[in-house]
Amino acid sequence: MPPRLTGRRLRAAAMALTAASAVIVGVLMGSGTAQAATSQPCDIYAAGGTPCVAAHSTTRALYGTYNGALYQVRRASDNTTRDIGLLSAGGYVNAATQDSFCAGTSCVITIIYDQTGRNNRLTQAPPGGFNGPAAGGYDDLADATAAPITVAGHKAYGVFVAPGTGYRNNSTNGIATGDQPEGMYVIFDGTHYNGGCCFDYGNAERNSRDNGNGTMEAIYFGNIKAWGYGTGNGPWVMADLENGLFSGVNAGYNANDPTVTHRFLTAIVKGEPNHWSIRAGNAQTGSLSTYYNGARPNVAGYNPMKKEGAIILGIGGDNSNGSAGTFYEGVMTSGYPSEATENSVQANIVAAGYAPGGSGNNLLTPGSSISLRATTACCTTRYINHSGASVNTAVVDSGSSATAKANASWIVRAGLANSSCVSFESKNTAGSYLRHQNYQLYVHANDGSALFASDATFCPQAGKNGQGNSFASSNYSTRYIRHYNNLVYIASNGGSNAFDATGLWADDVSWVVTGSWA
What we know:
Blueprint: H1 8-29, H2 41-47, E1 52-57, E2 71-75, E3 81-84, H3 95-102, E4 107-112, E5 122-124, E6 148-151, E7 154-157, E8 159-161, E9 167-169, E10 182-188, E11 200-204, E12 217-222, E13 228-229, E14 236-240, E15 245-246, E16 252-253, E17 265-272, E18 275-282, E19 289-294, E20 310-313, E21 325-334, H4 339-352, E22 354-356, E23 369-374, E24 382-387, E25 390-395, H5 402-407, E26 410-414, E27 422-426, E28 432-437, E29 440-445, H6 450-455, E30 458-462, E31 469-473, E32 480-484, E33 487-491, H7 505-508, E34 511-515
Helix pairs in contact: 1-2, 1-4, 2-4
């Protein structure tokens, strides 16, 4: 039985409703959702008596007065860094700063700053119990341009977490420990997920190890079934409490936890002594739904909780980093927020105007037939082509044979592993897709596996050399489709492979999308 709204909770609910009114008035008095709200999520939480103790976003300010940096990027060309800030106090990210700084090269996100002033920033996750130094060391950093969107019509970028990517802070200030109450919300891409462990945001162990039941309290999103699951095929919002993904009082299956696939997903987990809750909703419209509200799990070790107060993004508490997902914003609070406060925050999120950024190219709409032309000066008559399973670039023109034209033609499909990205089906070999294997591209029949879906999914963005589009691999987000010696790979901007060479990289990974030859 959840606690009744009495005393402090009733006063907090009233203050939250007042804050919500300020948000609504601010939007109505503007010219639409493009106006920044006068009261942002952390202002609403503070008004409800549960202030933010961590606030992370790559898209907008989470306080009405915040005017600092949102995140930092590092470019490959010279390893210099640049802080990415806001267009105005309390407003939206100045993505043009990133675009200018990263033009002609690649960038990764090195820091996601904490807007609370507590310095609970997120940086590259260190080795942990799952993968210590002998198994590869620090996690990967997210490609800074792999998740383009708009917020209130302004260009922005999310944090695209491919397997192996992770962020963490093990030395935090003010985050709940032990059985102290806390709340958290996050906005994820509800179409980008996998069954790897574990795409989390929230409270974790300070030593990057599995320290036992109840040492975590984080929001999980994905479709793994090993420790718990809900209805349908997933993905599900669950709580990662360490050694268990929970969506109710019972371990395993819980019928009240639905599959959710909103393009932009608001997800909430909050907990206090012997009581916790999961809520979620569409971040673009509507209200929140409560999936669970009740006692702690009836499994030993979770009551009382033993939270340790680190913060993680994209990984599990022991640095399990096989997960995938996309993060846009999230906060953690001191104290257990009321539903009225959270409802006001949801109204603010909806008013913010999250929307897909798209590729900037109408030809990349699922169902379109296209061809992909190289932009490097040597090769502007060459197109991505296949002959059976082999993929290369070949010269195609109006005098080419019908077979050559068909081999260079593709049907755009919604991404097999992420519907906000794309997959390319062969125009003349139905059911076969462009996919990478050992970093080289082939055309293979779709075998229905999760691995194939990931290997055959590419996320379009503006061309790295200013022409056409570049296509990031869904499961290796710092690698892009590149031609090299007329073969085609997914290549990083620098690395141990010859096809990762930095020379001409921006040109080689940029493709003009045309109508198909066949």
